[in-house]
Amino acid sequence: MPTPPLTRDQVQLLMADNVLRGDRPGLPEQGIAPTSAELIVPTYLSGHSKDVAE
Q1: pLDDT for 2-54, tens place per residue?
Q2: What is the Cα Rg of the chain in Å?
């Protein structure tokens, strides 16, 4: 385990809410199309493993 397990900066980050409320614009309002991890992760791994499905 690292010493300390959490830094002071990490504790500060954990004290702030990082989940959007319903009154904030979502992905579509920002012009972002969500993509599933199953489609994206293999592109990160291509070229690094022979077992990655294409």
Answers
A1: 677 888 999 999 998 888 778 888 888 999 999 999 999 888 887 765 654 55
A2: 18
pTM, whole model, 2 decimals?
0.38
Determine which helix (DSSP H) or strand (DSSP E) holds 39, and give its type and residue range: helix 37-45
Q: Write b or e for each residue in 22-35: b if 16 or more Cβ atoms lie within 10 A of its Cβ, otherwise e.
A: eeeeeeeeeeeeee
Please, are residues 47 and 40 in contact by the beta-carbon 8 Å criterion? no
Side chain identity at residue 39, one-letter code? L
